[in-house]
Write a structure and sequence with these properties.
globular, 4-stranded antiparallel beta sheet, 0% helix, mainly beta, 7-stranded antiparallel beta sheet
C-alpha cells in the first residue's frame, strides 16, 4: 500500500497485494456490474483540487479550516478480470465534485484532510463509471450516485 501527494498537489493511494487495508464498495446492489464488498487488489483512490478556472492546485498549501469544493474524487478498482474507473471531475460535464477540507497544519503545510461529496454542487454525488477495454481505452458504463468520506493524514 502506498499513499502520496504528487507534483500537482493531488493525493493518491494505492491498495494492492495485501488484504489488511480495504475499501468497501456498494456496487452490485446499485446496478453496477461488480459485486458489493471489500476490495483490496489493484485499488487506486485519488483526489485533485482546482481553482475557479479549473487549473490544478495543491492540497498542501491549504490552511487549517480551509475548504475547496471544486475537487475531483475517483477510484480505479478490479473486479474479477475487469478493471473499472469511477470518477467525478469538475472538468467532466454531468459529474459532481468533492470538497477537500484541511483539518490541521504541521510545519507550514496542511497535514490532515477530509474528502466528502460536495452536496451543493451541480450533479451532487454523481460519478461516471467506465471499464477498461483490452486495448487500454475506456468504455462508458453509466453514472453512479456515490457517497464517501475519506480522512487522510500525512
Amino acid at each position: 500500500m502506498t499513499s502520496h501527494i504528487g507534483a500537482t498537489g493531488a493525493w493518491m493511494m494505492y491498495i494492492g497485494n495485501q488484504s489488511v487495508r480495504t475499501v468497501y464498495l456498494v456496487l452490485g446492489s446499485q446496478g453496477i456490474p461488480a459485486p458489493d464488498g471489500y476490495y483490496y487488489q489493484n485499488v487506486e483512490i485519488y483526489s485533485q483540487c482546482f481553482d475557479s478556472a479549473d487549473n490544478q492546485i495543491g492540497i498542501l498549501s491549504m490552511g487549517a479550516g480551509e475548504s475547496n469544493g471544486n475537487c475531483s474524487f475517483g477510484m480505479d478498482f478490479t473486479s474479477g478480470r475487469t478493471k473499472y474507473k469511477l470518477t467525478m471531475v469538475p472538468t467532466s460535464p454531468g459529474t459532481g465534485r468533492a470538497i477537500v477540507t484541511c483539518n490541521a497544519v504541521t510545519g507550514g503545510s496542511c497535514s490532515d484532510w477530509t474528502i466528502v461529496p460536495n452536496a451543493v454542487a451541480p450533479n451532487a454525488g454523481v460519478a461516471d463509471l467506465y471499464h477498461f477495454s483490452n486495448n487500454g481505452g475506456l468504455i462508458f458504463d453509466g453514472v453512479y450516485h456515490n457517497s464517501y468520506s475519506v480522512r487522510l493524514t500525512r
